[in-house]
Amino acid sequence: MLGGVLCLSQRNFMKRLEGNNKVHNWVDSIRASSPTRAKSSSQNQEKSAWNAYHPSALNMFDKMISNSKGKQIVTFLDYDGTLSPIVADPDKAYMTRKMKGTLKEIARHFPTAIVTGRCRDKVYNFVRLAKVYYAGSHGMDIKGPRKNQSPKKGNNGKTMLFQPASQFMPMINEVYKILQVKTKCVPGAMVENNKFCLSVHFRCVEEKNWAPLAEQVRLVLNEYPKLKLTQGRKVLEIRPTIQWDKGKALEFLLQSLGYNNSDEVFPIYIGDDQSDEDAFKVLRSRGQGIGILVSRFPKETNASYTLEDPSEVEQFLRRLVEWKRSSIVTTTSL
Ligand SMILES: O=P(O)(O)OC[C@H]1O[C@H](O[C@H]2O[C@H](CO)[C@@H](O)[C@H](O)[C@H]2O)[C@H](O)[C@@H](O)[C@@H]1O
């Protein structure tokens, strides 16, 4: 009996320890995903070493274009931190006017999809471009081209909806309500409902309260084994445990565009966050196109190239448009 009681308390102790470790790992990874380091000379060296493996996509533009020769470029763009700068209020993450104009041109010249953790409707309200395909909720809510539609024809207004996690919507709504109540006591905490996933925002929470907030999230998630947690830039993201992510969404969109197992396509995926790594991995394993990480700081990544911030993303996209325009002029004047 005594042995049994000891075992139980030992088990409880181990469980608590496991819980504490989980919370600390999440908090560490939130910290790592948004580094704010001042530039010292050793950090400059670290950055140069990193850039040797992940050079600037602006510097490598000509090489990249020559690799895409004869292939259809398709652009995949993350939203927050890629097309729009990171801001404290997620409802105010607007693109600059310049970015919006460039994005419009990109979508005119190349099949283009926005792949985001956001709710699809919300991101559409920020972007408002009909020619773009939208994959919201980390790819779990895709408004994309009709299967095997001819890629040359664009979306023609004909789209289809793919929602592989639709059965989780009631659960997500339930957890959203619970988390709203449970996180009320943490000043600055905010929960965002992204339809098939949730975001718990840490950006406006004092760092000393990060662990208590993460602990609230852990306690709620304990009751929902069919949901899992991932980390982003000062955010914890709660999603269904289905095998679906931005990488799968990218493959799905390529297939829908008629480029399944095709050599004729050159996908360019640009993103800044952990969730974009799934897409970079897919491109690497297919040996196709390029992944571009948006980051000012060295980070472990599966992307080949880098850009520092959304303003460099805009420059890169503009060069792509200019190159396309000039290649059209050259072809028509031949
Ligand atoms: O896949 P993404 O488009 O990058 O979406 C990921 C999360 O982006 C948003 O949060 C991030 O941007 C906010 C606005 O700049 C910022 O306040 C927050 O700290 C960042 O994590 C969005 O609000 C989340 O729902 C997305 O999961």
Automatic annotation (TrEMBL):
Q: Which reaction does it catalyse?
A: alpha,alpha-trehalose 6-phosphate + H2O = alpha,alpha-trehalose + phosphate
Source organism superkingdom? Eukaryota
CDD domains (alphabetical): HAD_TPP
**What pathway does this protein act in?**
Glycan biosynthesis; trehalose biosynthesis
Q: Which cofactor does it need?
A: a divalent metal cation
Listed EC numbers: 3.1.3.12
The UniProt keyword set, sorted, is:
Hydrolase, Stress response
UniProt record, GO biological process: trehalose biosynthetic process
Q: What class of enzyme is it?
A: hydrolase
Could you tell me one molecular function GO term of this UniProt entry?
trehalose-phosphatase activity
The record's similarity note reads: Belongs to the trehalose phosphatase family.
Briefly, what is this protein's role? Removes the phosphate from trehalose 6-phosphate to produce free trehalose. Trehalose accumulation in plant may improve abiotic stress tolerance.
Q: Which PANTHER family did the record assign?
A: TREHALOSE 6-PHOSPHATE PHOSPHATASE
Q: What is this protein called?
A: Trehalose 6-phosphate phosphatase
Q: Which organism is it from?
A: Lupinus luteus
